[in-house]
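Task: complex structure prediction.
Instruction: return structure tokens for all chains below.
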Amino acid sequence: MAELWNLIILNPMLNGLIALSSVSGGSFGLAIIGLTVIVRLILLPLTLKQLKSTKALQGMQPKIQELQKKYGKNQQKIQQEMMKIYKEAGVNPLGCIWPMLVQFPVWIALYQSIMRALATTPESLLNLFQHLYSWEVVTQAIPLDSHFLWLNLGSPDSTLILAIIVGGSMWVQQKMVTAPSADPRQKSMNSMMLLMMPFMFGLFTLMFPSGLSLFWAVSNVIGIGIQYWITGWGYLRRGTSAQVVTKVGGKGGITKRP
Amino acid sequence: MKQVKILFLIAFSLLGLVLASCVPGGTQPAQGWSGITLNDGILYMGSMDGKIMAVNPSARSQNLSFPADGEWEYSITAPSGGGLSCSQTSASVAIYGTPAVDEALVFSGGYNGKVYALNASARSQNLDFPQMRDNEWFYPKTSEVIGAIVGSPVMSEDAIYVTSSNGKVYCLDKHFGDKKWESDVLGDKLWSTPYIEGDKVYISTFDGNLYALSAEDGSITWSFATESKIGFVSSPAVHEGIIFAGSFDDNLYAVEIGESGPLWKFTGSNCFWATPLVSNNVVYASCLDGKIYAIDATNGTELWSFDVESPVVVPPLLIDDSLVVVSDSGEVYIYPLETDASVGNTVVSMLSIGVSVQAPPCAQEGIVYIRGQDNCLYAVDIEQGRVIWKFPLTTQ
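Output:
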């Protein structure tokens, strides 16, 4: 299984990353940025599907809240009615999860590629040779220059700059899609999620090689761009007091806010 | 919606686990692959759990309890942040270099960026380290470090030379650990073992340079750079005024000291990771492509090669008239060398110890000592073609 994973996903991505570094004038930082952009473009259809599903589900929140008020603690009835609403709107409640799960192996491979290519320990460097193609553009690029801007891509960023960029961009991205909720429990959970993930990734940035953090930062920025393209600034601009104005189509489609 | 949120939470937690290195191959911890030095009948090596050990092969062959006569161990630890925990703990330090031994003193460099001189007598008695009266020391003498040490320490009559991941070569007084000199930064990081010949220290670097430094003051007396700055992956070997070193682009370079161009290049199908062995004008080079090459040292012509079907990470050994090759997959091959090197050779014996081998072995009196990546020491009798004893280095 591991060999199949290496053969089909990891090795092409790893060698692609190193080749990109070679054609980027030996800058591994630019290669990480380039590969992140390429991967996000390839995954764009899935990302759009995920965003649309999420948006459609959020658009149904007022109706679901009404159901909760109407049926109180009768969870079974609420579930039944919710499923009816989803069916009528043509929305799959798990529709926003599957595209994300499908993307997971790609993110894992990208993560592994960056870590392997950086070869921070002697074992990693030796191991790297088992994954390299005999392309001149690849073999001549090794070992990679781990310096990019103020960063040593093989070590955590000792300044807080990258941690703030990663955490901040993640917060912005999440804030754009997190719908305000009247339900106190939901509101509390949203607030927790909104803070927990940026905080966690900010913390990871202080612990993991900054090459990986650079990938998170770039990925977040691209995510914000895609989100903006679909919904504008979304809930980031409207805050929590504004009304959600989303028209849910028969097939779960969305109408871009003017 | 609640279920969806929970799924989100699970998915993000999974991502967290992935990033926390739970996916194999994400990050590889430094474990070390210290080789073995034989001195006065005792084997010295670093274990994979951060110990410098002295092992008596005679005691091991009798299966005596450790430590027997002449045996000892010393754990090198360094403060560690303990992952997500805020508390400070001690972690074992990886040891990559083969220890250098001078009578009672054992020199070793740690991945924590410290150089150690241990006295066998003081370590046998398990006294506090360092025992100044026994010439024990560590460098730097403060809590500072000089950058992770991967190459082996190399000795001259009164000095120890070590390379560091900070890109410098350090020359230390053998008896007191005082710094005699440190070189300029020679590369991004230096993981190679220096080669000392006469009053020169030869170094290969990851950014494609070979340097000759003055052993007296560390000044650069000669340098060579590969075309396109292709880096050197192996440590250098020097033979009759020629430096041999493997590069990242699958070439083995031969460069005459003092010249600006290579004497010859020999291309394999992967890197020449291990330091080549040179004898009688023949270069024996282990390659990660799974072959051993015998190359004419004067012109780079291939004399013969043999496919061991597994990458070879460690240098071959020359024992009497036989070449002993240990592959990464743990196979030990023995080749009798013909007087005419171009004739080629036939493997007369092969055995397997069944574990990965990345630490340079050593040999004496027909016995090859191999440290496997299972952290066990193996004694292989090459005449009998079998493992005569095995000693776990972790259980002590």
